[in-house]
Amino acid sequence: MRSAELTKRNFKEVWRDPISLALTIGLPVLMLVVLQALKNADDFFSPSSLAPGVAVFGFVMLMFSAAMSLSRDRESSLFSRLLTTPLKPSEFATGYSLPYLPVAIIQAIVIFAIAAVFGLEISGSAVLVAFILLVCAVMFIALGMIIGSLFTQNQVPFVYMVILLLAIFGGAWVDVESIGGVFKTVGDWFPFAHALSAARDVMSTGAGFSDVSGDLSWLVGYTVIIVGFALIAFRRKMVE
Q: Which one, of 86, 71, 49, 221, lies nearest residue 152 by Cα?
């Protein structure tokens, strides 16, 4: 695989920054503990409901790290030198995105392990929950690639805030079903609400694949489109 060296280089860059890693993994855990303390009467902040939302928050942070890394390289001479290599856009995307996937997996494992301490129970298939979160992680990493390709280091934080708010009001920490109205209408147009709904249904009610297929269709569809846009963004930079 021609992107192996680029993947290895970026993997080292990710794991050589312990402070960033600690924040990326530790902050969602801290958020889980704080929100668990706010558990309310309708159990929206119960472990089964809260863990997927906090995992999505962690993926948003990972998206930010991926976007900043790519944007930083793009504004340096390194990226210009890389573009002289015979790598295809898909190989560039793989080299920059693959190192973040293990971090996403570790994030989810740590979050669910801490949630288990608070009494997390998964009524349905844990494999299905893992699949939903994996697709969600791929989507956010691809979003990071798009943002890092199109925006400067100074602009990335503003785009990050927009995505974070969409995820929050898509149901990560807010009970959109109770609020209803425009928040639910807008939230349903984005993949975050569907990913959270699918994961929570499997965990809380034991829903199977067929029961969450509608939400999964939204999530997988968005992921395919976002990955496609990431490849287009890389191709655009290579042409420039």
A: 71
Sign of CA dihedral 167, 143, 65, 126: positive
CA angle 126, 132, 134 (to 5 degrees): 100
Q: How far is 126 from 199, CA to CA, in rounded Å?
A: 10
Identity of the residue numbered 226: I
- Per the CB < 8 A criterion, the answer to whether 34 and 124 are in contact is no
* Extents of the domains making up the chain: 4-239
pLDDT tens digits, the chain, 240 residues: what are they? Answer: 566 777 787 888 888 878 888 888 888 888 888 877 766 555 667 888 888 989 999 999 999 999 998 888 887 766 666 666 666 777 777 888 889 999 999 999 999 999 998 888 888 899 999 999 999 999 999 999 999 988 989 999 999 999 988 888 877 777 776 666 676 777 788 898 899 999 999 998 889 999 999 999 999 999 999 999 988 887 776 655
- Determine the Cα–Cα distance for residues 45 and 49; give it in Å rounded to an integer: 6
Angstrom distance (rounded) from CA 62 to CA 45: 23
Q: Is 152 helix (H, G, I), strand (E, B) or coil?
A: coil
pTM of the model: 0.89
Token pair 């290579």 is at which residue? 238
Q: Token digits for 1?
A: 């695989």
What dihedral do alpha carbons 88, 89, 94, 97 form, nearest 10°?
150
Give the whole-angstrom CA distance, residue 67 versus residue 52: 22
